[in-house]
Write a structure and sequence with these properties.
This protein has one helix and 21 strands. By secondary structure, the protein is mainly beta. It is globular, with a radius of gyration of 18 Å.
């Protein structure tokens, strides 16, 4: 999912979920006039609303600031919150989490994604997977998904994810091959393993991320639903030359900020091992 831009930061760029122009019930299981749709038809309509999600052209810029700083750098983003490691040659990123519940406070469509990935922070390419919470017509739906450049389509897989499900996510690169894997150990039908390819000239492997995101569509950033604290644990990362945790590499702590510079979601500090942190929802856009 493409990061719109980092404001007041050293680096910017990335990937954000680009949605279809309309998220309407349409003909996908809509109820007759005056009737409340069944749970099955509402679920079908909610998932149909996610079809065709794609990544637009590059939407990133470089902000002013000192160059070459290593170690923790605090940056802000319109729609990302979490941590990103920067450098080169990233070959593996992984994490585990318990799927947080979302509270749907209105009938408006709201989206919150939780994921790991290679690339996207300072490049146009994306190799990512995770879980997605969708508030649709006032009801919460949860999915597993993956995304791989250059197809740029968000691929939803499992639709029976529930709050409390135990999730393990990873992206592993071997040469030009990328293995994207999600394991839902609570509800196995949501698990998947995919292998995709991307040339070294295209997918530059310049970052690794652990992110909570407010996805972006044609009309801008979707409202971020109130989500229970998301804790990314057992966070591991490797390059072609070494392996470690988030703090092993040059890392950026990313806070999600709204148009009025208000904090929408904030990451906590890394634990002492550098392999776990939490993101706390503050309020929606």
């Amino acid at each position: 999912m493409r990061l719109l831009h980092l404001r007041r930061s050293l680096l910017a760029g990335g990937s954000a979920l680009a949605a279809a122009a309309a998220l309407a019930l349409g003909s996908a299981g809509a109820a007759s006039a005056g009737a409340h749709p069944s749970a099955a038809s509402q679920a079908a309509a909610a998932r149909a609303a996610l079809r065709g999600l794609s990544v637009p052209g590059a939407q990133h810029r470089l902000a002013g600031g000192p160059q070459g700083v290593r170690g923790l750098t605090k940056v802000s983003s319109d729609n990302w919150s979490g941590y990103a490691d920067t450098g080169s040659g990233y070959s593996k990123v992984s994490s585990t989490w318990t799927q947080p519940a979302v509270t749907c406070n209105s009938s408006a469509t709201q989206l919150a994604a939780f994921w790991v990935g290679i690339d996207g922070f300072s490049s146009k390419t994306v190799e990512q997977d995770g879980t997605l919470a969708e508030c649709f017509d006032g009801t919460a739906f949860y999915y597993t998904w993956w995304e791989m450049y250059p197809s740029n389509d968000i691929q939803t897989v499992g639709s029976t994810v529930k709050p409390g499900d135990k999730i393990a996510a990873s992206v592993v690169r071997t040469g030009t091959s990328y293995a994207l894997k999600i394991t839902d150990s609570t509800t196995s039908g949501n698990s998947f393993s995919k292998k995709e390819t991307c040339s070294a000239a295209t997918c530059v492997d310049s970052s690794a991320e652990w992110i909570a995101e407010a996805p972006t569509g044609s009309a801008g950033i979707y409202p971020l639903p109130d989500f229970a604290k998301w804790t990314a644990a057992s966070d591991a990362v490797s390059t072609t030359s070494k392996s470690g945790t988030i703090k092993t590499f040059a890392d950026d702590e990313i806070t999600m900020k709204g148009a009025s510079d208000d904090t929408l979601a904030a990451p906590g500090a890394l634990n002492s091992a550098g392999n776990s942190f939490s993101v706390t929802w503050k309020h929606s856009t």
